[in-house]
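Problem 12. The chain below contains 101 residues. Write out its predicted structure in token notation.
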Amino acid sequence: MDVKIEASWKEILKSEFNKSYFQQIALHIKTEKSQGKIIYPPGPFIFNAFNITPVDKVKVVILGQDPYHGPGQAHGLCFSVSNGVQPPPSLVNILKSCMMI
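Solution.
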């Protein structure tokens, strides 16, 4: 499967992209989209975190657990939204917590 992703990550993850579980996920997403379902984040942003940071620049990995559900919120990076997008309530709470530290 040819996944559009930054070269250093593509090299590391290429064996995962060819495994059946990954292909099943990709097929499921394509099927849902073909049935008119809205998928977040949009396709170009699914691997956004990998695309903006080559593997040799990674120092820490933080995984988000709260999926965003509104248009424009999900952009492939956890705990953030793009400039000009109103953050969902869960992100507002996280940001408030960070300000208390």
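Discussion. The chain has four helices and no strands. Students who got a different answer should revisit the alignment rule from Section 12.3.
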